[in-house]
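re: that chain from earlier
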Amino acid sequence: MLVSLQTTAAFASYLAVFSLAGIASLAAAVRASRIDNAEIRAGLVWLLLTTGAWGLLQAGLFATSGPVRRFAYTAGLVVGFATVGAWLYFVSAYTNRGYHRNARVRRAAVVVFLVVSAAKVTNGLGLHTLYFTTKQSTTPFAHLAIEFGPLHWLVTGLSYSLATTALFALLDMYVRAGYDTRPVWVLTVVVGLPATLDVLGAILPGVVDASYAPIGITAFGVFALYVYEQRFVTAPETDGDAAVFLDVDNKVRDYTAAAGRLFSGLAGARGRPLSAVLPQVAKAADNETVVGRQVDDEDRYYMVSETSVELGEAEQRVLILSDVTVTERRRRELARHN
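^ sequence. v structure.
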């Protein structure tokens, strides 16, 4: 009786985790569809849609039987590989690398996807066993056990290498934007953890052979869009500049490290009106003029420009202070001579 309960609990847990991951990813895709930047929006929406489909197909692997189960697994392999492409496109757009716009890179990506997908589908149809073989297993519950072939490990190694490179590109973006990068490191662990489970599933009988990546990617999407949304959306806008984020009432919501170094008055200013904290910046923002500051005993000048970002119901103004010291000094020198 106890064994039966444990088996049922294990089955229910796997089914629930992958189903919830799929549903949560699809819900996050709806939220991501409201991001202003078209390229970032396209990459993130497709990433979350493919991840959601992948998670649900993994759930189908446990909930179905017979040929349908094998189809669910094979379809999951194809959709999962498409997720890698969506992830790389999103990161390239988000960090403004430009690879997603390169026609040669895009053509090469399509060719690789078609070749790898063909290998997966033909394996699923039983034409070869280079990617995977299947057998029935009863541990920890009755399921279709997968034994991975050499093609699987080759493609998996390539996929995780590319995904890891993209993660470090994201980290570099946050460093340049002047943000606390600890959440990104945590996110790196969360996204990469499924790779460990994939390996354990191949060697430990108590861990089901499955693709656990949808769980990590869903965690990324939910974390970025619901927990860390303000910095996530605004990081590409600031890209290392001093920036102050305001709500619709012109109250300070946040600021980058560069802005904090430039204006010590921002410390503890969250929730206060900008006009009370930095009246000179507030005035310059209204007129799009230059503000002067002494930095290391040197007069420096910053152009205050404004942009806005929107995600779902959240909308905010972003004041970006760009260093225009050289230009302003030259303008003032010319003005003196005239």
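Strands lie at 132-137, 143-148, 242-246, 252-255, 290-295, 298-311, 314-323.
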